[in-house]
From TrEMBL:
It comes from the Eukaryota. PANTHER family: OS06G0587000 PROTEIN, POLYGALACTURONASE INHIBITOR 1. The lineage of its organism: Eukaryota, Viridiplantae, Streptophyta, Embryophyta, Tracheophyta. InterPro entries: Leu-rich_rpt (IPR001611), LRR_dom_sf (IPR032675), PGIP (IPR051848). The chain crosses the membrane at residues 231-257. Keywords: Membrane, Repeat, Signal, Transmembrane, Transmembrane helix. GO terms for cellular component: membrane. It is found in: Cell envelope; Membrane. Gene3D superfamilies: Ribonuclease Inhibitor (3.80.10.10). Pfam families: LRR_1 (PF00560). This is Leucine-rich repeat-containing N-terminal plant-type domain-containing protein. Residues 1-24 form the signal peptide.
Length: 278
């Protein structure tokens, strides 16, 4: 009887201990999400009315229950933040690198705002990211190559920003990528074939994904940079210069012929004169 009681006590202690350990880990991950959202908020210079729900109390526990959040635009799953949807929310400011603390984030949509500055490269730490929409903002700098570390990415929408530099070819290695739009930026260089063509040779993303970047070139856009000379212009210049040189040569030949003809005529005249004198 006594031993049974002791065993029960030990079992109870074990349960309590493991529970405490579990909740410590739980608090830690909750802390990551809180740190993430607090960072996101503090990087914003102007927060549309909706973000008044992002109170300091609310930010301490971003997820109430398993799927609810008191914070506008925040989606939870199993007590963790899995989506941030703040499209067209009148946000200005920058994207905080703290975003990478939302380690289970799957959906990020902060499109159609007035966000500026770079896309933080540590966005590549978001291993479960499925969809990223940063379109219609004023973001500048390069497209971070680190995005290619988000292996589950299905959709990358960066259209209508001020992004510059080349498109990292590593993005073409994302196996699940079904949607890709970097149109209307300031990107330059050759379009990576891994994004324009599939491994089987068919087209992967068409020109609507790439248009509106004046110095981006290669299939599916025209081969030469639009800012440089088009193929038609090059052929035209070639033909025109050929024609000009043809005319010049022809004229020169005619002039030479006429001069030598006159020379001959003069000489002939002299000879006949000499012959007449003799
Ligand atoms: C944000 O996007 C979702 C779907 O992507 C759309 O249903 C919603 O209307 C958008 N919100 C605003 C404010 O445009
Ligand atoms: C988490 O946020 C803190 C505070 O903003 C930051 O210093 C840290 O780099 C972030 N962690 C990651 C993985 O980005
Ligand atoms: C991204 O957001 C814009 C508007 O904010 C929308 O038009 C576009 O369809 C979205 N892209 C994706 C891949 O959902
Ligand atoms: C985040 O990614 C950077 C590289 O982009 C890496 O150096 C860093 O260790 C990562 N941090 C975490 C917490 O994963
Ligand atoms: C991609 O496909 C186009 C059209 O089929 C073809 O002209 C081009 O050579 C291909 N590029 C590469 C690198 O395979
Ligand atoms: C490009 O592809 C998209 C999606 O696959 C399609 O909706 C669109 O009509 C295509 N545009 C052109 C110009 O082919």
């Amino acid at each position: 009887m006594r031993t049974r009681k002791a065993v029960l006590m030990v079992a109870l202690l074990l349960v309590l201990f493991s529970k405490r350990k579990g909740s410590a880990a739980f608090a830690q991950t909750l802390g990551d999400d809180a740190m993430c959202l607090q960072g996101v908020l503090s990087a914003l210079a102007s927060k549309g009315g909706g973000l008044s729900s992002w109170t300091s109390t609310g930010l301490k526990t971003p997820c109430l229950g398993s799927s609810a959040s008191s914070l506008m635009g925040v989606g939870c799953n199993n007590n963790r933040v899995y989506s941030i949807t703040l499209n067209a929310s009148k946000l200005a400011g920058t994207i905080s690198p703290s975003l990478a603390n939302c380690t289970l984030l799957e959906t990020l949509d902060i499109s159609s705002n007035r966000l500026e500055g770079p896309i933080p490269p540590n966005i590549g730490n978001l291993s479960y990211l499925v969809s990223v929409n940063l379109s219609n903002n004023h973001l500048d700098g390069n497209i971070p190559v680190e995005l290619s570390m988000c292996a589950y990415l299905n959709a990358i929408d960066l259209h209508a920003n001020q992004l510059s530099g080349p498109i990292p070819s590593q993005l073409g290695l994302l196996q699940r990528l079904k949607f890709f739009d970097v149109s209307n930026n300031k990107l330059f260089g050759a379009i990576p074939p891994t994004l324009s063509n599939t491994s089987t040779g068919g087209p992967r993303f068409n020109m609507s994904s790439f248009k509106g970047n004046s110095d981006l070139y290669g299939y599916p856009l025209p081969v030469e940079p639009a800012g440089g000379l088009s193929v038609v212009a090059i052929v035209g210049i070639g033909l025109a210069s050929g024609l000009v040189s043809l005319i010049v040569t022809f004229t020169a030949a005619c002039v030479w012929l006429r001069v030598t003809e006159q020379g001959f005529a003069a000489q002939e005249g002299k000879i006949s004169q000499l012959m007449a004198e003799a």
